[in-house]
Amino acid sequence: MSEIALTQEEIEALLRASDSGETPAPGRREGKDGPALNRLLYSATLAGSAALEAALGAKVKIDPPAVSPAPGHDGRAHLVLPVTDAGGGYLHLLISTPVAQAMLDLLCGGHGVKQDELLASQVKTVGEVLGELVRDFAAHLSAVNQRPVELTLGEPSVLEAGDYSGWLAELKPELRLVYPWLVGDSARGFMEQWYSRAMLEALAVSPGPAAPRRAAHGPVSIRPPAFEPLQAGPVRPGGTNLDLLLDVPLQVTVELGRTRRSVKEVLALGIGSVLDIEKLAGEAVEVLVNGKLVARGEVVVIDDNFGVRITDILSPQDRVKKLGE
């Protein structure tokens, strides 16, 4: 996949065209600026689709986008994932609710069949999966632009068809990209990206200063470097001075047990659900320090609180080694 960088001049020319009131046809922008921006964002979106495929366990095919300076409305409700950058720019990622429902079915081990209306918890789950695409999208742009592109995910929500126009009037996006895409074997639809002017400017390449060039005239002197001779210093005795570390805070965790469950089983959990764990009743619990096993013990009650009575513990030397692994 080729990497296309967009210069600051190209972005500014694109924004000036928008200010002039020119309206290119969907899928095309006049001049050289629009295609470069189109290819840059499309290549980053394709990079993010691999993470989406891994999360869904299904093929995700994203076609090149149509470009329009002003969003339209297809009469459907959309799941919206807001994304912002440090400069206040925004990118809103929109997918139609039928595709979101099919994605949820894939997460639950299905075949991408449209489900019923999305619950609030399910909207959050689909938003987290779309977040994987956004993270790889930002990583690709960071590599292309050779500077960090830091994006922050917001809370996903459902935009009802009747609220579309009012939300659009308030948001006033600068650019809309509409990607035809196929999720799984049958979930077809459109993924939309709405960009603010500030976000478009943040995604442009800011080339660094050119490296100074040596003058071509005059001789060049070449000589070996001169270093000061090394002086022998005092040798400190070996050993580890633990006194320097005694006040360092550590995270101590008591682990009752663990278990593994599928995404479908996790989504089915509710109040009153019972999870069985891989530990026998009465078996010792594990005491972890910064995630490292250092001791085992039994659960006791101290006044109104739980506690652990240590029954087996590593030696101090072994504990230090564990924390250093």
Describe the structure.
This protein is α+β, with helices and mostly antiparallel strands and about 325 residues long. The protein folds into two domains: about 10-200, CheC-like (Chemotaxis protein chec), CATH 3.40.1550.10; about 245-325, Surface presentation of antigens (SPOA), CATH 2.30.330. Helices cover about 30% and strands about 25% of the residues. The chain is built from eight helices and twelve strands. Strands 1, 2, 3, 4, 5, 6, 7 and 8 form an eight-stranded antiparallel beta sheet that branches. α2 (about 35-55) crosses α4 (about 120-145). The two termini are about 40 Å apart. About 25% of the residues are buried. Residues about 1-5, about 15-30 and about 205-220 have low confidence and may be disordered.
